[in-house]
Design a protein that fits this description.
By secondary structure, the chain is of the alpha/beta class. Helix content is about 50%, strand content about 10%. It folds into 2 domains: about 220 residues, Rossmann fold (3-Layer(aba) Sandwich); about 90 residues, Orthogonal Bundle (DNA polymerase, domain 1). Strands 3-2-1-4-5-6 form a 6-stranded mixed β-sheet.
Amino acid sequence: MGDKFVLIDGSSMLVTNYYGNLPKALLFEKDPEKKEKLYSLIMHNDKGQYTNAMYGMMRTVLKIIKEQQPTHMMFAFDTTRDTFRREKYPDYKGNRGDTPAPLKEQFEGMEEMLRAMGFVVMYDERYEADDIVGSVAARFEKEIPSFIITKDHDYLQLISDYTRVWLVQTKSETAEELQAKYGAEYGWSKDLVSLPDKAFEVTPTLCLKEYGVRPEQIPDLKGIQGDASDNIPGVKGVSSAAIPLLARYGTVEEIYRAIDECDGDKALKSLSASWKEELGITRSPMKALIEHRDEAFMSKDLAMIRKDYEFDFGLDDFRISFDKEKAKEQFEKYGFKSLLGSLQ
């Protein structure tokens, strides 16, 4: 077994475990005041600190270490929504509600726990977790095979010949369907390839086959389609035309170059007709593309993961040096008795 670097989107994993381990009564309650009254039902330790997300995430991390046997590991977290993207577009992620207090508390607890156990934990006030992961992967991927664990489709743009994304699906059935769909073609089976729970390994070829674009085109796709989860506008009403247009032109810039080369309405109509005939685009996106040019370029920029985040760690700093004594202290502090056995 050679070296293997696992990069974890800590925010995605913690949030997934928070909602996955919430009491049903709380999960379905809409009234904010009633919700708060139910907080006492959330798993907590003897000091009253909430632990449901941390416990679930820690269990997941231990399972990944045992099954994947990575030699190197890191965790990246989001700390604020007021990053450089919000400076560019104040409504970025503006559709998201406040983080519930019991989850907010566990972000700090989780980061502290992982650091105490010897893992590298990274976050920044100006950059998001995906920018940090993108920057770390870009620096070391040619030295070590890298695997990113996340639920977030934005990360697909980081896939390369050296980096894979283990994209976590909401349901295990979805991951199994994807494995079945591509397994025969790529010689995969559960006996040969061990993947984290609910995850599907996306390669450059599979990204194109399953999502319709190459990894590097993900920002272009979001430039046109937008991304409702991040409140990125895109070009309204053009979503179905995005993939065929990108298949022909490659980037948002090249789509607009083709539009700009049209001299007058007649040429625009002719281009629109060729899209319909050759690309199978039934409803012309021309008017919307012209009207929302600025939004297209801004949306692509917002969706693009940065790789220029500066950090001082060398590859060896990410080598796993799991401190079992510290882990034991942390598990006892938070009441994770069932996890103590995994430290033997």
